[in-house]
Amino acid sequence: MKTIQAVTYPVHFQKESYKELSKLIEEKNYSTIFILVDENTLEHCYPKFIPNLATDKRIEVIEIESGEINKNLETCTGVWNVLTELEADRKSLLITLGGGVITDLGGFVASCFKRGIDFVNIPTTLLSMVDASVGGKTGVDLGVLKNQIGLFSNPEMVLVDDAYLQTVTPREIRSGTAEIIKYGLTYDIKLFNEIKHNKNLEISDLIFTSINIKNEVVLQDPKENGLRKILNFGHTIGHAIESYFLESEHKNNLTHGEAIAIGMICECFVSAELLNFPKEKLKEVKETIVSIYGKTAILKEDFPSIIDLLKHDKKNVNGQVNFVLLNDYEDYKLDCKVSEDLVIKSIEYYNS
């Protein structure tokens, strides 16, 4: 599979990618290799990865607890302390081996430690392969507010080996599929149609196409001043729902993809109300997403808290919530203003 060249780094695929990593380590002559994992990737992915790492450099493994709830500054401080104790220096390399939490947090940790050390992303979930590990966004949550603390910082390279998908649950595969649906609705409807009809679902091809789309967008707009905002479709309402379920003692947590899937239905409804997005396509999106993810109960008493979380969305300007909406498939409009009443109506439509 052909390497994709991102802004300042390559995205390598499958077994060949490990040769490129070994070459990087040799050329840059790193002092120590640190590998950031959680308990799941330490057990299931590290044993697959380490035989492919050809180096005589010192290797240290740093483990954090899994889950979005641990994607915070406290965890970062713990990792920074361990790096310090293990005498990491500016010639150290941090390899992130895991899902979106690991790649987001690990990139942020590396970018801030001693004003920046090199890092390499090795995503092990579908979500992190098609989204989190590519594009240069790093960061952590502030309380339940998603990705409030972070910066744009590019890795030295990204290695995508879909063999790691054998280690994740079907639920995690569905979570990543939501981001592929997003690329389909906003940029390449063929992706959505393949998932809708569940035909020819060659996962490596879907991953490659998704990364290619994201890279095309990011190359044109690295810092999200315009086009890159389309990658937020479904995320404005979706992030608020994800955060609400994360902080609520009476709700089971949603995966990122499950929340974004709900957000895409809601934002397609808003698109139909404001931009005349075709009603038959709204119905098609809802039926397809519900067939994959089922329905999550969002009660009327949940609405005020979700609306309140919307107000803290990092994309807001002057207190105004900004949405990416659709005129049609592959035809988007940026920076749309949406009333709270319409957001509530969109959640009611999802519930109906």
From TrEMBL:
Domain (3-dehydroquinate synthase C-terminal): residue spans on this chain: 176-316
Presence of the UniProt keyword Cell wall biogenesis/degradation in the record: no
Keywords: Cobalt, Lyase, Metal-binding, NAD, Nucleotide-binding, Zinc
Domain of life: Bacteria
Coiled coil, from the record: none
Cofactor: NAD(+); Zn(2+); Co(2+)
Domain spans labelled 3-dehydroquinate synthase N-terminal: 62-174
Annotated GO biological process: aromatic amino acid family biosynthetic process; chorismate biosynthetic process
One GO MF term: 3-dehydroquinate synthase activity
InterPro entries registered for this protein in UniProt: Dehydroquinate_synthase, DHQ_synth_AroB, DHQ_synth_fam, DHQS/DOIS_N, DHQS_C
GO cellular component, one term: cytoplasm
UniProt-listed Enzyme Commission number(s): 4.2.3.4
One Pfam family cited in the UniProt record for this chain: DHQ_synthase
Listed NCBIfam families: aroB (TIGR01357)
Record's function text: Catalyzes the conversion of 3-deoxy-D-arabino-heptulosonate 7-phosphate (DAHP) to dehydroquinate (DHQ).
The name this protein goes by in its record: 3-dehydroquinate synthase
Organism: Tenacibaculum todarodis
Upper classification of the organism: Bacteria, Pseudomonadati, Bacteroidota, Flavobacteriia, Flavobacteriales
